[in-house]
Amino acid sequence: MSGLTLAQEAFSKAKQEHHKLAIEIRIHDDAYYQQDKPIVDDAKYDALRKRLLAIEAEFPELATKDSPSQNVGAKPSGKFGKITHVVPMLSLDNAFDEGDVRDFAARVRRFLSMDKDTPLAFTAEPKIDGLSASIRYENGELVSAATRGDGRIGEDITANIRTLKNVPHTLAGTNWPDVLEVRGEVYIGHDDFGAMNAAQEHAGKDAYKNPRNAAAGSLRQIDPSVTASRPLKFYAYAWGEISAPISDTQMGAVLKFQEWGFSVNDLMQVCSTAGQMISHYKMIEAKRSALGYDIDGVVYKVNDLALQERLGFVSRAPRWAIAHKFPAEKATTIIEDIDVQVGRTGALTPVARLKPVTVGGVVVSNATLHNEDEIKRLDVRIGDTVEIQRAGDVIPQVLRVLDADRAGRSAVFTLPKSCPICGADAVREVDDKGNRDVVRRCVNGLQCPAQAIESLKHFVSRRAYDIDGMGAKQIEAFYHKKLVLEPAHIFTLEARNDEIKLETWEGWGEQSAANLFAAINARRNIEFHRFLYGFGIRHVGHGNSNLIAKHYLSFDKFLAAMTSEGQEAARADLLSIDGIGEACVSALLGFLHAPQNMQVVNELLAEVKVIDAEVPSTDSPVAGKTVVFTGKLELFSRDEAKAKAQSLGAKVSGSVSKKTDYLVAGSGAGSKLKKAEALGVKVLSEAEWLVLIG
Ligand code: IVH
Fold first, then answer.
1. 676 contacts 628 by C-beta, under 8 angstroms
2. In the chain, N or C: fewer CB atoms in 10 Å?
């Protein structure tokens, strides 16, 4: 007999079995995920993994980094491919109280020119707090799946989605369209989350913050066999591309999903009034803690799909749906310190460092205090006990001080009058009307390291250049080494790599460096709206950048219009774009007329080519034409008429000029009609306009 104790013997036996299992599982992973030729059926494979996990539960030291339980199998490609959503994946506007919900219902009626007696039904269903995914079926077979991404392009998570138990690989039932993209939410239930975190802790690893983060981490596993071991579920609630209509109503479509083998939420209901929507919300809110999964509100959708079609969407959200959010969760804690952060636009933001506290399942240790007026309003000081709130993924806020009359409070906190990063003046601007900005800003622009770094982070962010492998951490490292001080430098990194030798840096290797350069080069052709948004000009966000790109189509033409026609003409031209306001125009012109900014633009233009915005569909007779609506329209609301014109590629302007192609005049048209007549602009009645657009 050997001299081992019983415990040592048990461990040694377990270790041997674990080793054998690990090899076997890796072979199966490789056969399944790499060769696409599984050797064993799912039940046999699951049994192997289950045994491996049982051994690791008993002997956690065996759950080493290379165990299949952590990161199994032969490594797949290392990155997710991209999938373009033919039908964009939208997000939702929010309603925070009953008034917002009633406004939403009224807005829908107004848009549809529908009086209050005409029936109008809405569905109401829980808003699941997970991650959305789009799963594509062709001839009833699951062919691909993608994350939402930026709404237009998502990541290819087909292999991971295939591992979800309640997602059919082959559609059940009959009569599904040949092409069907089912959309819904991937989430983890409370019980499963508890078990998952217990296992994490058992293995000596950090617990997940909440079920949503655990779901996100699980779905974005490079190795699908890791995803397979996670308890992810899917609720179907929407669709993308479909080759044939599936129903006349939202409710009907979701019931079809159920017939075809998907899980749908049984708290979905059709409501015929705003009052019913609100009572359903209250019912769901009352059940919230017993549901077994996280929800953060209730989603209302117009039930009639023909009406949804007429309503369409505005920038990124449908007009026919809204999310009624639950009130933010609150907690009490102590302010241990107040720091000042400097943002991309130079704004000095006071941030409260808190004694860590759990709010709605998440540990919070920072909260924003917004600006100095807010600090004054709250009279908040270091050492105070405060009430804070956290709503969804928004930065937590301080709501009020709970012990304001306590004796011996610390001194009043004042924001510094100079930038804590670069030392330049930090001022509150006063506009032409004498209004003082609530925000104090560092005046040093891109000379301030904080602003430069935040601007670069914005430049590589998802809605701008979206460079894979270039995030906040990398930007900071490149900036501090003085290798990337402005956007153009990102594009010259590869050419300088003989000196930089990125592959020798800690955390980098040949492959990751090559991947980064490839990701950068892939962005040398950049869409107009991303190019513009990338500069991070105040008031020129994603939505406005899109509007501007669609209006001018080419960046060269835009720049020419901005710089050669004189400021007043440029201003008028920009303001004629529906949705572009004064603040955006002033910021944009201010940016383009500063020589140091134009130098940044030109240096970047030496590295990248700006792709023109898409020319509107030419089969519409109004594509590319500028249209103005005036007077009272009878058949459609003004908003619906405008939205329709835009969807046909027309530009809708608020004022008549010699660039106007059509003035559509309803009853009671006044000065715009006169001006159009004087300028010889073609004037159409509402009926003539309808004939024109067919
Ligand atoms: S409908 C065009 N329904 O909420 C409408 N979304 O804030 C598409 N979500 O990106 C969304 N539960 O990830 C819809 N029952 C539900 C939902 C839901 C959760 C998520 C979804 C969406 C986000 C928008």
1. yes
2. N
Short-list 653, 664, 661, 654, CA closest to 679? 661
What is the set of domains in the chain, with CATH numbers?
A: 6-70 (1.10.287.610), 82-325 (3.30.470.30), 527-611 (1.10.150.20), 626-693 (3.40.50.10190)
| Contact partners, residue 307, CB within 8 Å, separation at least 6 | 108, 112, 120, 320
Task: Enter the tokens of residue 641.
Answer: 């008429």
Backbone angles phi, psi at 537, to 5 degrees: -70, 140
Amino acid at position 692, single letter = L
Amino acid letter, 358: T
Testing ligand 1's pocket by substitution, the residue of 132, 186, 235 carrying the most ligand atoms inside 8 A of its CB is: 132
Neighbours of 41 (CB within 10 A): 8
- What pLDDT digit, counting tens, does each position of 350-360 carry? 999 999 998 87
Closest ligand 1 atom to 148 CA: 10
- With a 6 Å cutoff on the Cβ, whether 125 touches ligand 1 is yes
Ligand 1, atom nearest to 125 Cα: 15
Give yes or no for residue 574 CB within 6 A of ligand 1. Answer: no
78 torsion bin: left (phi>0), alpha (psi -120 to 50), beta (else): left
pLDDT at 407: 80
Q: Which two tokens stand for residue 684?
A: 């159409």
What's the CA-to-centroid distance between 365 and ligand 1, angstroms?
29
Ligand 1 touching residue 269 (CB < 6 A) = no
Whether 134 lines ligand 1, by a CB cut-off of 6 Å, is no
Catalytic residues: 127
The answer to whether the CB of 294 is under 6 A from ligand 1 is no
- Biggest CA–CA distance in the chain, Å, is 110
- Give the burial string for 630-641 (b: 16+ CB within 10 Å, else e): bbebeebbbbbb
Q: Residue 568, SS3?
A: helix
Note the pLDDT of residue 72.
44
Contacts of 617 (CB under 8 A, 6+ apart): 623, 648, 649
- Closest C-alpha residue for ligand 1 atom 2: 90
Structure tokens at 134: 């789009």
Tokens of 638: 């003004």
> Counting atoms of ligand 1 from 1, which one is nearest the CA of 313?
2
pLDDT score of 655:
85
User: Which residues of the chain are modeled with pLDDT < 50?
Assistant: 1-2, 35-36, 72-78
pLDDT for 572 equals 87
Distance 127 CA to ligand 1 centre (A): 6
Q: How far apart are CA 617 and CA 648, in angstroms?
A: 7
Protein residue with its CA nearest to atom 10 in ligand 1 = 91
Helix or strand (DSSP H, E) at 226 = helix 224-228
Question: What are residue 320's DSSP bridge partners?
Answer: none
Q: How far is the CA of 495 from the centre of ligand 1 (A)?
A: 44
pLDDT at 65: 66
Distance, in Å, from the CA atom of 660 to the CA atom of 204, rounded to the nearest integer, reads 68
Is the beta carbon of 627 within 6 A of some atom in ligand 1? no
- Summarised one tens digit per residue, pLDDT across range 414-438 is 999 999 999 999 999 998 889 999 9
Residue among 384, 376, 389, 382 at smallest CA distance from 401? 384
- Strands 313-314 vs 317-318: parallel, antiparallel or unpaired: antiparallel
**pTM of structure:** 0.69
CB 177 within 8 A of CB 242: yes
pLDDT of residue 74: 36
